[in-house]
Specification:
- The protein is built from 6 helices and 7 strands, in the order αββαβαβαβαββα.
- The chain is of the alpha/beta class and about 180 residues long.
- The protein has a 5-stranded mixed β-sheet, with helices on one face.
- The longest helix has 14 residues.
- The radius of gyration is 17 Å and the shape is globular.
- The N terminus is likely disordered.
């Protein structure tokens, strides 16, 4: 009996271990440097099997006050597994030149606690792989604060323009659908 329990324990430990990149779909491959930190965000390890909201951001955009609403969404739904990833970008010429200023806007001015990367290219041929995959599954961002809702299987189930506020019922419905999605 103790051998069976030991084997069962080993099996459960193996199954609950870190997620390998091979277990993640193409959307969650790779890493992004974390905003004003020495570590990176391993997309697969941090987001695999979790509902995810990805937003391209910009510090000096008129939509920057949406950071507050995005933080409210994160705080409201994180106990149900929701993750939020903010990806600053200067693709639309509205991001700070220095990541220290970007961090100040996010962390100090708006109280962001969800994952934020260093500024990245999110449109065109030079877009990072994450945004190339988002564009393939949906469309490329047309402006800052474009929002992508990703289900637990790493598929985009909805995308929303910058004009859609974080408390918009259609966005919340898509997030709840992603949260309810099977693994």
């Amino acid at each position: 009996m103790s051998i069976r329990l030991s084997l069962l324990g080993l099996l459960l430990a193996a199954l609950s271990g870190p997620v390998l990149a091979a277990d993640c779909g193409p959307l969650l491959q790779g890493e992004l440097p974390r905003l004003r930190a020495k570590d990176s965000i391993d997309l697969c390890q941090q987001f695999a099997g979790k509902p995810l909201l990805v937003v391209n951001t910009a510090s000096y955009c008129g939509f920057a006050p949406q950071f507050k609403g995005l933080e409210v969404l994160y705080q409201t739904y994180r106990a149900q597994g929701l993750q939020v990833l903010g990806v600053p970008s200067n693709d639309f010429s509205q991001e700070a030149d220095a990541s220290a200023e970007t961090a100040k806007v996010c962390y100090v001015n708006y109280g962001v606690t969800f994952a934020m990367s260093e500024p990245q290219v999110v449109t065109g041929d030079q877009a990072i792989p994450l945004f190339k995959q988002l564009a393939t599954q949906s469309s490329a961002p047309r402006w800052n604060f474009y929002k992508y809702v990703v289900d637990r299987q790493g598929r985009v189930i909805a995308s929303f323009s910058s004009q859609i506020q974080p408390d918009d019922p259609a966005l919340i419905k898509a997030l709840e659908q992603a949260i309810a999605s099977p693994l």
